[in-house]
Amino acid sequence: MTYTTALSTPWGTADHVELLAGEYGEHLLFASTPGHGGFAVPDEWVRRHPLARLVKSPSRIRIGDTHWFEEDCGWAALPLLDKALCAVMARAFGKKEKTLRAMAMGLAKKYMPEFHRALTKARNT
Question: How far apart are CA 88 and CA 58, in angstroms?
């Protein structure tokens, strides 16, 4: 579902907002501005996925009770931490889930090393 209402993002007012997931009180928005964009999830999602807090600014920016994961690298944390969001994002990007997770893992390793190390450690325990 695409929205046309103005939404404030860390990168300015969005000119495009799309609700990608809204099940079970879970919300995943994608918003873009003329210069940048990213994905927004509620604080509740981050509380359920505490490793997300290891994604540092500018890849993750918190405004009020919303956490914004920017479109270049920060987004990678979402499908790596949440299988349901991985499926949603794979459909949105036209990718297979396995391909999306591999892309996300590569970005995390290169640009978010603290998050990548913690995720790898958590998966190996």
Answer: 24
* Whole-number pLDDT of residue 2: 55
Q: Which domain holds residue 41?
A: 2-123
For Cα atoms 28, 125, 105, give the angle at the middle one, nearest 5 degrees.
45
Q: What is the tens place of the pLDDT at every residue in 45-92?
A: 999 999 999 999 999 999 999 999 999 999 999 999 999 999 999 998
Contact between 46 and 66 (Cβ < 8 Å): no
Give the C-alpha separation, 16 to 33, whole Å.
7
Q: What is the pTM of this model?
A: 0.90
Give the angle subtended at the CA of 89 by the CAs of 20 and 120, to the nearest 5°: 135
Number of domains in the chain: 1
Nearby residues of 122 by Cβ (< 8 Å), 6 or more positions away: 51
11 secondary structure, DSSP code = T
